[in-house]
Each structure stands twice: as structure tokens, then as C-alpha cells.
Design the sequence.
């Protein structure tokens, strides 16, 4: 049995779909952020697998993944700062209850 | 032709990626969801190691598992009670999420399978990228070198540090 490219792409695809499902069903902002991380991670896997199988010896996919990891870290830090700030003023992190700015 | 050990490693990695990512989005206790996310990220790092990108696997463990998950756990402990589980989902919301997930699965799965011949390429030979190659690719301005994105990321991280402090600080 040969482990071909599709054997790696299918787990990444399932991971991405789990991210989509979680992003829609979750109400807690931190849980939504966790689902977002799942989606980003699945895309990173795709970059690496395409780089490894189709363009071995080059490093474009690997560097894309490196920069994506750095940006994901920055994005998570900022959004957690925002969530903690929201919690301080509303005492809640459920997206249904965050309607202060609507009126 | 792959060795038996390699296939067993692949099966463990793929199964743990699938199982833990499903558990991440279905577990009702949010602290458990963060823990399952940690396991998913570890499985991803193992996948990078298996594809011969050692540096990338190390970065994945250091940044994701070491930084982001710890940040998540701190934020969860600050904003919710540890034993508290989220309320049961309304079936409408769950159906909507399920439809969106399955639609994504179908569309992307169809795109994958219709390119079947390309997706069936077997693993080509490759020497692992050495640290020297990675460093030179990151610190040059020629073709296939990434000094400008590297500097842009450093400015982004600086902005992120300052923004984080400004946003989260007590007034």
C-alpha cells in the first residue's frame, strides 16, 4: 500500500468541516475561536502536503505554513484580549448576549 | 511501497486527527474542548514530522501547543466556571451547522476526487530541508527567499503586542 496525497488531504478536510460545524453551532466566543484554529490548522496541513508531494525540494508551502502559524498566534492573542475586555464590561462571552452596540 | 511501521504511524496520526477534531467541536465542557484541540495540534505536528519537515513540526509544537493553547486555557479560566458546561444546543442551530459542514465536505470532497489522478501521486524522494537552507531562505531577498514577509511578520507581532496590552489593560 502506498500512502498517496489523498490520504493526508482527507483528514485535513474532515478537520476543516469540524471547524465549520463548530464555528456555526458554538455560542461561546472562545469556543468559536477554537473552531477557527481547527480550520487554520487544516489549511496549514494542505500547504505542507502539496509542497511535499508535488514540489519536493522547494520550500514555498513550508514557509507559507510558518507565516500562517505566526499570524494565527497574533490573531489569537488579540482576540483573547478583546474577549477578556468584553467579559470585563458585560460579564459574559456568549455571542447572543452581546447586543450593547446595536442600540 | 511504504514500510508497515510507516503505515501504522500514518493510521495513528490520521485517526487521532479525525477523532480529536470531532471531539473538539462536540464536547460541551469548553476546557475539554481546549484539551482536545491540544491533542489535534500534536497530531498535526506528528504529521509534519512524518512528512520530513522537522523544523515545522517543532514550530507547531512550540507556538501552537506551547503558546496558543495555554492562552486559550487562561482565557477559559478567566471567563467561565471550570465545571460549567454549555447549554444544550437548539436543534435548529445544530441542523444549520451540520448542513454547512456536510456541504463543505461534499464540495471539497468532490473537488478532491475529480482530481483523482493528481491526488494519487506517491511520496517522492526528498532530503530534509536543513537549518542552513531554511535560514538562508528566510534571510535573503532573491528568488524564493522571504526577507520581506519575515520583516512584515515582525512588525505585525509588535503591533499585536502593543494592541494586546492596550486592549486588555484596566482603565
Sequence:
Amino acid at each position: 500500500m502506498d500512502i498517496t496525497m489523498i490520504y493526508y488531504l482527507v483528514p485535513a478536510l474532515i478537520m476543516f468541516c469540524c471547524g465549520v460545524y463548530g464555528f456555526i453551532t458554538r455560542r461561546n466566543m472562545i469556543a468559536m475561536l477554537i473552531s477557527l484554529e481547527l480550520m487554520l490548522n487544516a489549511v496549514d496541513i494542505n500547504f505542507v502536503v502539496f509542497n511535499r508531494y508535488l514540489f519536493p525540494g522547494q520550500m514555498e508551502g513550508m514557509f507559507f505554513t510558518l507565516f500562517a502559524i505566526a499570524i494565527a498566534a497574533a490573531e489569537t492573542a488579540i482576540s483573547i484580549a478583546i474577549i477578556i475586555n468584553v467579559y470585563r464590561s458585560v460579564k459574559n462571552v456568549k455571542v447572543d448576549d452581546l447586543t450593547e452596540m446595536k442600540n | 511501497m511504504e514500510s508497515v511501521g510507516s503505515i501504522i504511524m500514518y493510521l495513528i496520526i490520521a485517526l487521532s486527527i479525525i477523532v480529536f477534531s470531532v471531539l473538539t467541536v462536540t464536547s460541551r465542557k469548553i476546557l475539554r474542548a481546549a484539551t482536545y484541540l491540544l491533542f489535534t495540534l500534536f497530531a498535526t505536528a506528528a504529521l509534519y514530522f512524518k512528512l520530513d519537515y522537522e523544523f515545522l513540526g517543532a514550530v507547531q509544537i512550540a507556538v501552537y501547543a506551547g503558546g496558543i493553547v495555554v492562552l486559550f486555557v487562561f482565557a477559559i479560566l478567566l471567563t467561565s466556571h471550570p465545571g460549567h458546561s454549555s447549554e444544550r444546543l437548539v436543534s435548529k442551530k445544530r441542523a444549520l451547522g451540520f448542513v454547512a459542514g456536510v456541504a463543505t465536505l461534499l464540495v471539497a470532497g468532490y473537488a478532491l476526487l475529480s482530481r483523482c489522478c493528481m491526488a494519487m501521486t506517491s511520496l517522492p524522494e526528498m532530503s530534509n530541508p536543513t537549518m542552513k537552507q531554511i535560514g538562508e531562505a528566510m534571510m535573503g531577498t532573491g528568488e524564493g527567499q522571504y526577507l520581506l514577509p519575515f520583516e512584515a511578520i515582525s512588525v505585525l507581532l509588535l503591533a499585536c503586542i502593543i494592541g494586546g496590552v492596550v486592549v486588555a489593560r484596566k482603565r
